Hints:
This protein is an alpha+beta fold.
Amino acid sequence: MMADIKSIIESLLFVAEAPLTIDRLKTVLDISDAGTIREAINRLTEDYETRKGGFHLRLVAGGYQICTRPEYGE
């Protein structure tokens, strides 16, 4: 189930025009436990860091956003 939540969160972050907060993700996913959301975000962050691809997950303005890695910004 965690893999599903992680993939759903990744999809939401990818299409979101603005950073998504834990509270917003809880509402959209209809999950009351913030810990579940945080755990999925932590695993997603680890995936991006391990892969070292063109994107990474950042905390921006109190929410999370998928961003281009600074070294690939140009």
